[in-house]
Inverse folding.
């Protein structure tokens, strides 16, 4: 039997997380659904037949970013308290399997549940509107769910990839912070994250001005334009691919360090 990664043991760990938390997951899910329904209800226009598209999209963003961070922190909560940490580390499974079982819920289960639930609520809301306001022209009321994404995340735009980039960095950074801090891990992680963003932004500003000088002259200087393009490309690659994997690697090494 593979001592590092065994599918049967990994499945057992995934099932363990569900069995131990299903009641809390269920109650949280009901509250989340009710909040989303309330947002749709309050987001209607004066006539009640049109739901603001910003409300529709915003409720999904809150679910993915805000609640996603809380969920990521909760899944790895066993490392926030010493007794829970010791109990979890004594489970007959490798640290890689324990790490992957948590990632399974954060990166696979959670997004599927959030997006599918939100789309069902969206569909049900407009079916109710069609039934309740039969005289309202539906072309003014019904905005296809796919169009919501096309509006905010057009194919030509980079907003979609930027959104996914921020999402992955938020979740992976939260996981890393949960493994590093034993008490008030979410608050400490948030403080560390905002501090890091401020420092990186300052360093980026200084670096750009040191390398490129006055940005207003770039349009008249092809060499500076090429440097800026290369700089942006490297930054995008780091943000989209390197940083999320780096946070996960640090989190995994920290988990491995805790192994008893």
């Amino acid at each position: 039997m593979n001592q590092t990664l065994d599918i049967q043991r990994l499945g057992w760990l995934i099932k363990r997380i569900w069995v131990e938390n299903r009641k809390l997951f269920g109650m949280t899910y009901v509250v989340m659904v009710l909040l989303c329904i309330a947002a749709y209800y309050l987001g209607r226009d004066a006539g009640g037949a049109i739901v603001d598209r910003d409300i529709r999209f915003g409720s999904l963003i809150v679910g993915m970013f805000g609640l996603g961070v809380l969920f990521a922190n909760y899944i790895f909560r066993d490392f926030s308290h010493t007794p829970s940490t010791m109990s979890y580390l004594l489970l007959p499974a490798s640290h890689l399997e324990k790490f992957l079982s948590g990632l399974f819920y954060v990166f696979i289960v959670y997004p599927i549940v959030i997006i599918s639930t939100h789309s069902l609520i969206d569909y049900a809301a407009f079916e109710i509107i069609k039934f309740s306001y039969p005289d309202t022209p539906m072309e003014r009321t019904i905005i296809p769910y796919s169009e919501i994404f096309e509006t905010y995340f057009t194919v030509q735009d980079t907003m979609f990839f930027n959104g996914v980039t921020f999402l992955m960095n938020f979740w992976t950074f939260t996981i890393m912070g949960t493994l590093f801090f034993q008490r008030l891990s979410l608050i400490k992680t948030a403080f560390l994250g905002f501090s890091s963003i401020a420092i990186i932004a300052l360093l980026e500003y200084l670096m750009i001005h040191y390398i490129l000088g006055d940005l207003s002259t770039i349009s008249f200087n092809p060499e500076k334009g090429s440097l800026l393009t290369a700089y942006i490309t490297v930054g995008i690659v780091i943000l989209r691919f390197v940083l999320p994997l780096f946070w996960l690697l640090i989190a995994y090494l920290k988990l491995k360090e805790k192994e008893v």
Notes: The mean pLDDT is 79.
